[in-house]
UniProtKB/TrEMBL annotation, chain A:
Residue segments, region Disordered: 281-329
Listed name of the protein: ImuA family protein
Length: 329, 443
């Protein structure tokens, strides 16, 4: 019993140390009572600016509550799309967040930068300004696109862009789980976002969850849209406002929940679609596991370098025979 | 033949390349270097000689440096290209003072006049072998007999007729350079030097009220090779720190390709293009201008490192064909006039494939309607709902007359993904069944 208490004490001390370094919100974990339960924070300028930047309230009450107030503004935010064909949904949700950020700072109208690899844009489609303009209220001349040849170039561009005050948000789109996008690279991006007080949205297509420095990971899939609303009644058979199935894969608050949200392009706002009201929300994830469980399915701290095939086949079992517990007797 | 004689076949192209390399190297003396035939170079040193200690010293410097590189060169210096050409080829290193062309040219053979072989043979046939023999001859019979070319060449050699040389590259409006006693090899040193050169450049740019739109850093290596790095900017710059940062990205992008060898002994920073630099007083808030400049600098650095076309912005175009409705222009191209908004079309996807991808439609309810099932990238999709068609006719003023129409459908599959499909052509209009394509993805 005493050993457990000691271990808890050590873990809490380490957590406090990490929180101090990162300048984060208090952990929602029970602290052992007594002295030392207050976390003394004297993080640098970055932490103070990050705290001042606050959170972005998405307008979906349950989602905001699960994130502890809203999406952090000064942070690296990972948005995962499971497959390349989900690129529309994942990019759509990332842009919805960016559009909300832009809506908040009414008047300044800063441009939005979208960085991606050339091959990725070829595979998942180039950003199309007329559609983006209509859906997210961002004028065509407020968009900047950067197609980098290599991931190293894209990362460099994203880091530099995170420092430019004239951009309202930076979207970095990456495909798969490249080795270069590791803990160090994401930490650099996160620090830049903290210093700038603006989000860097790391949009990942066809990627497995892996340890990164991003405090928030959202897994976004497609969800059937509600029919178009008319004055009389919803018009059956039509495709209305876009909807996304969003699951919290990792967050400070540690709650793993999933939501179906709908983006309203006219009001530029998100709202939750209750399963009872929406049509056929249940098969949103089809034959594959529900996104909510996916975050937990990944073995912690093991580098997920082999993404699963698009067909939904599980990655090859990495454990070889000789590593199994040997039976002696 | 002598047994130890090595015989190498003539390679005029390699000779040409070598001559161009030497011309590149001569750039250190003057920006106006022109090629002359297969074996000569013209250097217009007007206003440059004093930088090298006078004409005599300059010529000696050029010749000795070329000799140390293994070239046996001859030089002549005169106030007009014709006389310099003649002196360089026929009387060794010599300087012809202005006005002394006649005396210098008189003893030279007729070949020194750059005249064609027929005229020369004709003159020699009548016993005229030197330039001096025809200098004072009456002009009219010469023109009648040998054409106007001979007299023109004569006038050019004497400096009585204008002759222009064609420099290989335009002379930059502004250049700053530094000769280094000790060659530099480190990239950091080059960066630091570009900063110092830019400091000097700024004074001159300020005096002119201009900023640089394109800058070139020329690095002259000890062994004669020349590297040139060019950066372009979205708006005129003159800030040395900004210029240094641009060249840092350029040097980082060049990376291994920049072979420093034994180091660079001369570094020159040139302004290739300049435009008026608008000095704007910031408002009391003092933000917007600086922020805009910061964005422009970011774009320039991105362009220097990733290429001119890395950062682009969409510009709407008046066209209803989806792939033509927007054009991506490099950021540096600047703000352009916004075209009037075209007719409001239907919903547009947020991602558009560069080329529409073929789709196999397995089943459709009615031929003209949306598909029920289709295969795209080897996966089958079941269509849950569809909107459409939105028929887009081809632009007849661009395409062939019988280009097929496209019927666009907005489709949602059973899992909620929304796609933009189109059918090219109509059933019955052509012999084979119309084909389907995937063109975009909706949010």
């Amino acid at each position: 019993m005493a050993r457990t208490a000691m271990a808890r004490e050590t873990i809490c001390a380490l957590r406090r140390e990490i929180a101090r370094i990162e300048g984060t919100l208090p952990e929602p974990l029970a602290m052992p009572g007594g002295q030392g339960s207050d976390v003394l924070r004297h993080g640098g300028m970055a932490a103070r600016r990050a705290a001042a930047a606050g959170v972005l309230e998405t307008g979906v009450a349950r989602f905001d509550a699960a994130l502890g107030g809203g999406v952090p503004l000064a942070a690296l935010i990972e948005i995962h799309g499971r497959q390349t064909r989900d690129a529309g949904a994942a990019a759509g949700f990332a842009l919805a967040l960016a559009a909300l950020v832009r809506k908040e700072e009414s008047g300044r109208r800063r441009p939005l930068l979208w960085i991606g690899g050339r091959d990725l844009f070829r595979e998942a489609g180039n950003p199309y300004a007329p559609g983006l303009e209509r859906l997210f209220g961002v004028e065509a001349d407020a968009f900047l696109f950067c197609a980098a040849r290599h991931l190293a170039d894209a990362l460099w561009a994203a880091e530099e862009a995170a420092r430019v005050d004239e951009l309202c948000a930076v979207i970095l789109e990456v495909r798969g789980n490249p080795a270069r996008l590791d803990l160090t690279a994401t930490r650099r991006l996160h620090r830049r976002a903290q210093e700038a007080g603006r989000p860097v949205l790391l949009l990942r297509e066809w990627a497995l969850a892996e340890p990164t420095a991003a405090p928030l990971r959202l897994e976004v899939g497609a969800a059937p849209a509600a029919p178009r609303a008319t004055l009389a009644a919803p018009l059956e058979g039509t495709i209305g406002h876009p909807a996304f199935a969003v699951a919290i894969g990792k967050s400070r608050a540690g709650l793993q929940e999933s939501f179906v949200v709908e983006w309203n392009p006219d009001a530029l706002s998100l709202r939750e679609v209750r399963p009872a009201r929406a049509r056929a929300v249940v098969p949103a994830s089809g034959h594959r596991p529900h996104p909510a469980q996916a975050g937990g399915a990944v073995v912690a701290l093991r580098r997920a370098s082999v993404p699963s095939a698009p067909g939904g086949q599980p990655p090859r079992e990495g454990r070889s025979a000789h590593r199994r517990p040997r039976r002696t007797g | 033949m002598h047994p130890s004689l090595a015989i190498v076949e003539a390679d005029p192209q390699a000779d040409r390349r070598l001559l161009e390399e030497i011309a590149e190297w001569c750039d250190r003396y003057t920006p106006l270097v022109a090629l002359d035939g297969a074996d000569g170079l013209f250097l217009d040193i007007t206003g440059c000689a004093h930088l090298f200690g006078g004409e005599q010293a300059m010529m000696r410097d050029i010749l000795s440096r070329l000799l140390s590189q293994g070239f046996d060169a001859r030089a002549g210096l005169a106030s007009c290209p014709g006389a310099a050409w003649a002196v360089a080829r026929f009387s060794g290193p010599a300087i012809v003072p202005p006005g002394a062309e006649r005396q210098a040219l008189a003893p030279l053979p007729l070949s020194a006049l750059r005249i064609d072989a027929r005229a020369r043979a004709g003159l020699q046939g009548v016993g005229l072998h030197t330039v001096g023999a025809i200098l004072d001859a009456p002009r009219a019979p010469l023109v009648r007999r040998f054409g106007a070319g001979l007299v023109r060449r004569l006038d050019q050699a004497l400096g009585q007729a204008e002759e222009a040389i064609c420099p290989r590259r335009p002379a930059p409006p502004l250049s700053v350079e530094r000769q280094l006693a000790e060659p530099i090899m480190q990239v950091e040193e080059i960066e630091a030097l570009s900063h110092r050169l830019a400091l000097t450049l700024r004074q001159e740019l300020e005096r002119r009220g201009e900023g640089a739109d394109a800058l070139q850093l020329s690095l002259f290596r000890v062994d004669g090779a020349v590297h040139r790095l060019v950066v372009r900017t979205a708006r005129p710059v003159r800030d040395p720190a900004a210029i240094r940062r641009l060249f840092r990205e350029k040097l980082a992008a060049t990376g291994e390709e920049l072979d420093t060898g034994y180091g660079f002994e001369l570094v020159r920073l040139s302004v290739l293009e300049a435009s008026p630099f608008a000095i704007v007083q910031t408002d009391l808030a003092g933000e917007s201008r600086e922020a805009e400049a910061a964005l422009a600098l970011f774009a320039d650095r991105l362009a220097a490192r990733l290429g001119e076309t890395a950062l682009r912005r969409p510009v709407p175009v008046e066209s209803h064909v989806p792939e033509r409705a927007v054009r991506m222009v490099p950021f540096a191209a600047g703000q352009q006039k916004k075209p009037a908004q075209g007719p409001a079309g239907g919903e547009r996807p947020i991602r558009l494939f560069a080329r529409p991808e073929p789709v196999d439609v397995v089943a459709a309810e009615v031929p003209e309607g949306p598909p029920l099932r289709f295969r795209w990238r080897r996966a089958t999709y079941h269509v849950a709902r569809a909107e459409g068609p939105e028929r887009l006719a081809p632009e007849w003023w661009r395409e062939m007359e019988d280009a097929p129409e496209r019927d666009y459908f907005r489709i949602e599959d059973a899992e909620g993904r929304r796609f933009w499909l189109f059918r090219q052509g109509l059933y019955g209009a052509v012999a084979e069944a119309p084909r389907w394509f995937m063109h975009g993805i909706f949010a």
